[in-house]
Amino acid sequence: QVQLVESGGGLVQAGGSLRLSCAASGRTFSSYAMGWFRQAPGREREFVAALSWNGGIRFYADSLKGRFTISRNNAVNMVYLRMNSLKPEDTAVYYCAAERTFGPPSQAENGYDSWGQGTQVTVSS
User: Fold this and answer.
1) CB distance 33 to 99 below 8 Å
2) Bridge partners, 41 (sequence order)
3) I need a surface site. Which of 62, 74, 76, 78 has the fewest CB within 10 A?
4) 17: nearest Cα among 112, 106, 82
5) Confidence class of residue 77 from pLDDT cuts 50, 70 and 90?
6) Structure confidence by residue, pLDDT tens digits, 53-68
7) 3 and 77 in contact (C-beta within 8 Å)?
8) What gap in Å lies between CA 6 and CA 72, rounded to an integer?
């Protein structure tokens, strides 16, 4: 239903900040809850953050709350993930995902309908 393309990844020193972007196609973007997930080498894909269609409901992984911020701009079909105080353990491929719902966003992979191809974030120690 929606095409997603992530960008903004790269190499960052520990303690630095980075903002990831997710561009969505289609005129029905505002009907989707959006989420960010990440997958480190040798690990399962894990939930990072999510927000509802109008930004009114936000969820974060407990270990990331306070460092990461998810936001969206429906006028330009964009979702963002601001990452502060980055640590080497944040190194992963970060994925944007969409769920067609006006309710609270899912916090599990199987709740989402569409996925981007991911963007690599590498944090050096």
Assistant:
1) yes
2) none
3) 62
4) 82
5) very high
6) 999 999 999 999 899 9
7) no
8) 13
